[in-house]
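Holo model, 5-O-phosphono-beta-D-ribofuranosylamine. Inputs:
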Amino acid sequence: MKRVAVLASGQGTNLEAILEEIAQGKVAARVVLVISDRERAPALERARRRGIRAMFVDPGLYRSREEYDAAVIGELKEERVELVVLAGFMRLLSPLFIREFPMRVMNIHPALLPSFPGTSGIEDALAYGVKVTGCTVHFVDEGLDTGPVILQEAVPVIQDDTAETLHQRVHAAEYRLYPRAVDLFCRDKLKVEGRRCYIVE
Ligand code: GRF
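Output:
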């Protein structure tokens, strides 16, 4: 079992989906640590309920992004973490972090990248008027939502969609996709060559 850490700022429903599939034996991972930059993030409570170590690392205590990231890296190394899963983590990671875990940090984005990167993927897709959007699991590189794509799933946009209804449908796809991507990584089935990520047997 690979040792996995999850970084989350908010609700943590993706975290929950991953933990549930691990509990059911469908994902070959062990989540050893959950870190949040928000003290009251429900994600921390979800982890604690399942007996997983959950930590608030306070951004207010550090002078720069690099110093904050160095503190987080320290915690991850202490737990001998092999994969870092970003699940609604609202901070941009510094190059320092990415270099420490090259192709070892995953993120889920609520749009079909490279369309609608950034923090409002759902709203931007709706405002643009696309008929199909979706979600993307990708490795994190030094850019904003630019790393190699691991898995994607398309989600239709319907006439009467609001950001909320669309987000619900995208979320449902995320809960299918993210545990699968984590499982593939943990079984050493992902191979990255340049921008392309292959699933190997
Ligand atoms: C998800 O929609 C994900 O795509 C985005 O942040 C949201 C996190 O939701 N990166 P949750 O905290 O997992 O419920």
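The first helix runs from residue 13 to 23. The chain has a mean pLDDT of 98.
Archived with the compound record.
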